[in-house]
Write a structure and sequence with these properties.
Blueprint lengths: L13 H11 L35 H12 L23 H9 L2 H14 L3 H11 L8 H8 L2 H13 L4 H9 L4 H11 L7 H7 L11 H7 L2 H5 L6 H15 L14 H12 L6 H16 L9 H15 L2 H10 L5 H14 L5
């Protein structure tokens, strides 16, 4: 097994590993979230310890080690470098670990957290270090937290928690949101939705990247960023309209994951506004297929669950179908869809055929 940068051995810190990958493409998520991490070649090849059956005990053994460490005034942070590997270390905020941090000297907790995040070659100790930093407020730790947060599938949730607490945290979260995918994107976008100021424009235009995991946060984005106020504006730009289509389509099909359209009070207002904007846009393959998938969901949904009357639901559906039926739109999708692709087969059978869309 080799890492993304070749065989680096177990001694490289996870922070340095994330930083090197990030520098190769500074504006994009790390390939495969950086996996396999360097410690996968040694410590984490096998399955780790299980979580305690009683969730109330999760983190207690980690906290006991921290208490013992901080009780020794001269103990260096490096003493903890491999202290947690045989324990179950939660990758989310834990009350026992947080309590251990609060019992110790604040400055020493910060120094220990910094050292573990910066120097740990084992994800267990790096996670504990990040958990320690997540109990603090120091702005000077933001860059450190962002960098380890790029390994977002494992560190994203704690990194998001840590950044939320800091002045300038929203801007820092926005930087990270543009550079993570998968579960990491879920963690960071959900954190952004808890305090939307500078990030509203990004949330309304870029938060959904097409991953099915977007279903966990699409409704939160629509609510927190006040989508209904933005999309009804007559001057709504193409990026906003396109992203609104992705949000609506995601919410229509994310049952069991996040908020669905039937639990989104302004659903019919947003749908009607989006359909109106779509009718004024130029045809593209993504606009056609996204709108068709959305119509398919709406056609199967009762009007009451969308918060509108049957007449209002039918009018919205017809607005979409009128656009999809235009010859320019049909020509665009015929020219742009690969008929030999799996998506074309799925789309033709599951979306176009039930809606009687002609001309594919």
């Amino acid at each position: 097994m080799t890492t993304e940068l070749g065989s680096l051995g177990p001694q490289i810190s996870l922070f340095d590993y994330a930083l090197r990958l990030h520098r190769k493409d500074p504006d994009a998520p790390l390939p495969r979230d950086g996996e396999p991490y360097p410690d996968a070649e040694t410590h984490h090849r096998r399955r780790g310890p299980d979580a305690p059956e009683d969730h109330r005990f999760v983190g207690m053994d980690v906290a006991a080690i921290l208490d013992a460490h901080f009780a020794k005034a001269e103990a260096p942070p490096g003493e903890l470098a491999d202290a947690f590997h045989d324990l179950y270390v939660p990758a989310h905020r834990n009350e026992h670990i947080a309590a251990a941090a609060l019992r110790a000297d604040k400055r020493r907790v910060q120094q220990t957290g910094r050292w573990l995040v910066r120097h740990s070659s084992d994800r267990c100790s790096a996670t504990v270090g990040l958990a320690l930093l997540a109990t603090g407020w120091a702005e000077e730790d933001i860059s450190l937290i962002q960098t380890i947060g790029l390994l977002s599938n494992h560190f994203g949730l704690l990194a998001a928690n840590a950044l939320q607490r800091r002045r300038g945290g929203e801007e820092a979260l926005l930087w990270l949101a543009e550079r993570v995918a998968g579960w990491g994107r879920v963690y960071v976008v959900e954190a952004l939705c808890m305090g939307v100021f500078e990030s509203r424009s990004w949330l309304l235009r870029n938060s959904c990247d097409g991953d099915y995991l977007n279903g966990y946060f699409a409704g939160k984005v629509a609510t927190a960023a006040h989508l209904h106020e933005a999309i009804i504006r007559p001057d709504a730009d193409d990026d906003l309209v396109d992203h609104t289509g992705r949000l609506l389509s995601t919410m229509a099909g994310c049952s069991g994951m996040g908020m669905t359209l039937d639990h989104y009070p302004p659903a019919h207002i947003v749908l009607e506004a989006h359909a109106g904007h779509l009718s004024r846009q130029a045809a593209t393959v993504s606009r056609y297929t996204n709108a068709a998938e959305l119509v398919g969901h709406l056609a199967r949904q009762s009007p009451e669950r969308l918060g509108c009357t049957p007449e209002e639901r039918d009018r919205i559906l017809q607005q979409y179908l009128d656009v999809l039926g235009r010859e320019a739109w049909r020509q665009t999708v015929r020219a742009g869809l690969d008929r030999d692709s799996y998506f074309f087969t799925w789309f033709a059978e599951n979306v176009a055929a039930p809606l009687h869309l002609q001309g594919l």
